[in-house]
Automatic annotation (TrEMBL), chain A:
UniProt superkingdom: Bacteria
Name listed for the protein in its UniProt record: Branched-chain amino acid ABC transporter permease
Cellular localization per UniProt: Cell membrane
Source organism per UniProt: Siccirubricoccus soli
Keyword NADP among UniProt keywords: no
Pfam families reported in the protein's UniProt record: BPD_transp_2 (PF02653)
Keyword field: Amino-acid transport, Cell membrane, Membrane, Transmembrane, Transmembrane helix, Transport
Sequence similarity: Belongs to the binding-protein-dependent transport system permease family. LivHM subfamily.
TrEMBL record, chain B:
One of the Pfam families matching this protein, by short name: BPD_transp_2
Membrane topology: Multi-pass membrane protein
Keywords noted in UniProt: Cell membrane, Membrane, Transmembrane, Transmembrane helix
Compartments, as annotated in UniProt: Cell membrane
InterPro entries linked to this entry: ABC_transp_permease, LivM-like
Principal subcellular localization: membrane
Name this polypeptide is given: Branched-chain amino acid ABC transporter permease
Organism of origin: Siccirubricoccus soli
PANTHER family xrefs: HIGH-AFFINITY BRANCHED-CHAIN AMINO ACID TRANSPORT PROTEIN BRAE, HIGH-AFFINITY BRANCHED-CHAIN AMINO ACID TRANSPORT SYSTEM PERMEASE
Signal sequence interval, chain numbering: none
Membrane-traversing stretches: 32-52, 83-102, 114-133, 139-160, 181-199, 234-254, 266-293, 313-333
Automatic annotation (TrEMBL), chain C:
Keywords: Amino-acid transport, Signal, Transport
Signal peptide: none
Similarity comment: Belongs to the leucine-binding protein family.
Gene3D superfamilies per record: 3.40.50.2300
InterPro entries: BCAA_transport, Leu-bd, Peripla_BP_I, TAT_signal
Residues in Leucine-binding protein domain copies: 37-371
Organism: Siccirubricoccus soli
Domain of life: Bacteria
The protein's name: Amino acid ABC transporter substrate-binding protein
Keyword Transferase: no
Amino acid sequence: MDPDLVLLLNGIVSGLLLGGLYAAAATGLAVSFGMLDIVNIAHPALMVMGAFSVVLIGTALGLDPLLVAVLQAPLFYLLGILIYGVYHHFFEKRGEEALQGLAFFFGVMFIIEVGLVMAFGPEQRFLDPPYAFITWRIGEIDLPLRMLAPALLALAALGALHLYLKRSFTGLAVAAVAQDAEALRLMAVNPVRIKRLAFGLSVALASIAGGALVVVQPVDPSSGQIFIGRVFAICIMGGMASLPGCLTAALLFGVVENVTATFYGPSWSPAVAFGWLLLVLAFRPQGLFGRMA
Amino acid sequence: MSAAGERGVEAAVGLGAPRAAPKLLAPSPHHALFWLGAVLLGAALVVGLRLIGNEYGYFAGYFILQYIVLSSAWNILGGYAGYVNFGAAGFMAAGAYTAIALRKAFGLDLLPGIVAAGFVTGLLGLGTGYLTLRLRGVFFSIATLCLAVVLQTLIVNWDYVGGSRGAYIVRPREVPPFVSYGEYMFVVMLMLAILAVGISRTVELSRLGRGLQAIRDNERAAEAVGVPTLRLKLIATTLCGVLMGVAGAPLPYYSGYLNPEAAFSLAYAVNAIAMPLIGGAGSWLGPVIGAVLLGGLQQAATVTISSALNLWIVGWMLVIFVALFPRGIIGWFRRRA
Amino acid sequence: MDHLTRRQFGRLSLAAAIAGAGQVAGVFPALAQSANPIRIGFAMALSGGLAGNGRATLLAYQIWAQEVNARGGILGRPVQLVFYDDQTQPGLVPGIYTKLLDVDKVDIVTSPYATAMIAPAMPVVMQRNVTFLTIFGAGVNEAFKYDRHFNVNVVGDNMKETYATGYFEVAAMLPAPPRSIAIAAVDNEFAQKAAESARYHAKKRGIRIVYDRSYPPSTVDFTPIIRAMQSGRPDLVFIASYPPDSSGLVRAANELRFTPAIFGGGLVGPQLASFQSQFGPLLNNLVTWDVYSPEPTMDFPGVATFLQKYRELAPREQTDLLGNYIPPYAYAQMQTLEQTLTRIGKIDQAAMAADMHAQEFDTIVGKFRFSALGEWAEPRNLFVQFQGITDNELERYKRPGAKVILAPASLKSGSLRTPYGAAG
């Protein structure tokens, strides 16, 4: 095969796998930011917190990081409910959510990050499952399980969430909250309860994303920072409340980043990815896959 | 979306009334008095610090003053018009690197650097102004974040200003009329701070400010009643850009070395938002109070507690303040008064 | 007091902080002056990106201070460390140094960790004509040309011409002379200078550069870089990276079965215990820049004792468990200070600088002199190779044989194994 074609194919495949990780990180945000209108800028920090807890629990019990991530998700669900409680009490109820709520999550992000430094030190932590050292090879295409396993988990979580939102009554209610909280109230469903549940879910998803992150790379308390811009970008490009849109945007983002890195040098890949988002925002603010509101 | 709009209108009616009343009674907002007071206060600070005779005062002062400029700038767009700029660090760095580039190219010193930085970041601000044509709310914020990333990538790859290696500025050891370079830097930043606060106050009390508040409360309604929203927003974003740029221009001179990582530091973006919110966004005094309080606390914590703990305290401060004083310290006092 | 406890360390730093704070508020003036200690002030990254090495450096200083005080101090006075966390934010550094010099009135200042933090302190220090003994800077004084700046680091004056020399000496040991090289460097000062040196030597030796790119520190996936390198089929790979990306690059190289004759360069990361315990056998045959390895050729007097003490304290202080990277040099930096002060018999900034320019220093990292710009007159960039690593155990890195020195020739302790990826 033509070497350039091999490079391109591998760039695309590795971009898709990277996009899988981005999807894991962005799914929870698509729920909190996309559906609930809560600008949870602390989402990547919660993901890193999940990653630290995965490393600690996984190392202590000798369990697989992805398994731990799923097992600990209920705890993070409770944490999410707690955070939403505070947020709702102080900001949403008063109608202050836009600016003050943003500052609140900024503070939460800081508290989590610095709290992790104080508790565990600034060093990198890791927990490598045995499969992280295996690479499948299909023809000229490499599939490192280190990237593939988290991507598959992200897909599974996204799929489950999608089914839940489409099939179950509460799931439909979550989607409805995004559209019209008042109508929901008329149907005798308490929108606050629904939002609490949905926010809990988004934080649980952050914990799962944390597990995915541990498999991909070692984590330190500030690992979340480089994801902030990316996950918000993905949510917006995906058209906010749409999970398939979010997945597509995540995969595209990964592919653009990696193909640029392969052919034009990695220096420019953030500028290309974010510049692209800037253009999307300027000319198609509803996102690539969103419908006009 | 529409529900939020209605709430906005209610808020505008509810809040606008008491604030508008004194304005009607006093058509002249005492501009001359303010400028005189500000200059006197500034002069008193300079004299006071010289009497103390301690260099540290200048550095701690500079640290706080730069945040007064930065948060006042942020407040013009964020506090008055309700457009949250996440890219303060990007603007600040653009200003800093303009100063560096000018020095490299023409050997120009700090003061022309500041003017040029204001010009460049003003244009940048004008550009973001056009973004507001299409983008509202958090979309605008994310766009400014993207802008900062793109700018950082450009600077990192621009070898002329040092690229990722950073640029050195060897400053003179003496600046004649001043006792030290520290005092010189302090006085420059002090003048910028007075200017920034003055501009932000003038904007707040002028028709421009009222127009921006109308935009914040309900942009569509404002447009409907004939507020020239685009023009006002362009003025606001440009002003915001200019002031953020001039806040950044002295940075390379202050530290003698600047690399992109330091210039685009998250701390600037965080503080630019946190300080006005803590002090009270939407009023010119809010960012000043916030910057003095939070900046002072950070500086004090750096040299006393001196561990990760002090950042932790800043995080908690932010959360507790926005939770308990949603309209900032200013708002809290107004409510009690 | 043979063993420092964590609580004692806590007290030590607390005392330092109170002493600093006390002078501002005038609360505890007596505490700071009672013993008339020699106060050594510095900023150090205890949080933020550089905190890992910053904390290890601080621990080394504290061990030194405790030992010196147990011996009765310097010039009959105990030493006291006055330090503040710079949070890895260069913007805080000028303020901290002004505070140290003008408010705390420390007797001596030393530097924060690494170039980006040292440079902002330079103007402040220069304005007061204070002697500045720094740790692990790289070419800071090229711009400032300050004659009282001294830097403890192996890279020396002319990083462009000397840094990668050892790497190419190792390359010359290959059975067939290498014809091509791929270079990748992270976007930061040290790595860019390292890559520049590799470029310089490659050109000088007529080795073709088939790939030469920088990447941003925010890169998540490193497979595109490795794959693009791979497509150029280089004999040599020179990577200049920092810990987060070093691990990504090593992983990607293994996943893509990248087996150039020599893989390595100026990676920062493989020197650290966390990296070594994560990667284990994947490190085999990696050839990389280093500053210390417990090989017989580097068994300087005192270094083993120091490291033993450091390793006892490291777990509780949450610093690098082995201390094979920066700690011996941080300790040596303080020894340098001690030797100067003892020789001149007083605290005098001009005399200190004159002495440092003139004399040779004998420390736990060997003997060295300073050049005119205050760098090590003789650079000593080690290029080491990981050999015979079978698992993730850290014990082996305390003994010779795991990290063999290939260059410079004077410290060589083993022979090159090639290619990369063959032994793993």
